[in-house]
Amino acid sequence: MQHVHTGLDVSLPLQIWISPSISFGSGFLNGNGTVQPTHLGSHTEENISIGKFFGEKWSLAATALNLSNSRYLEDKSNTFGGTHFNYPRQLSVQLKYRFHY
Q1: How far apart, in whole angstroms, are the C-alpha atoms of residue 74 and residue 89?
Q2: Residues 15-70: pLDDT tens digits?
Q3: Which of 9, 39, 92, 101 shows the smallest number of beta carbons within 10 Å?
Q4: What is the mean pLDDT of the chain?
Q5: Residues 67/87, Cβ–Cβ less than 8 Å
Q6: 2 DSSP assignment
Q7: C-beta separation of 27 from 40 below 8 A
Q8: Which residues have CB under 8 Å from 61's CB, separation 6+?
Q9: Is 57 exposed, middle or buried (0-12, 13-18, 19+ CB in 10 A)?
Q10: What contacts 32, CB < 8 A, 6 or more positions away?
Q11: Could you give the C-alpha distances from 4 to 43, 52, 59, 60, in angstroms and in order?
């Protein structure tokens, strides 16, 4: 399997930042690969984070993982307990205060 991941961190005016990323995988090995190995389907996943700083101590950020909500099979062997799919779309918000250190 080949896996490629790339991303950016961009600082915008008004203390705003954005961080998009994309990952591509050519497909995990299907089975143990001993006799004519095959691979599971390829997959692409897009993620993005957007945030803003408020002064020196406060920041607010929102993150979306797997924007397209694509589903793909990661593994169907008995290793580590059975069949595994990737996570569905996940959204999170973070409010952060930086204490004196």
Answers
A1: 16
A2: 999 999 999 988 777 766 666 677 777 888 999 999 999 998 999 999 999 999 98
A3: 101
A4: 86
A5: no
A6: -
A7: yes
A8: 49, 50, 51, 52, 93, 94, 96
A9: exposed
A10: 77
A11: 11, 28, 30, 29
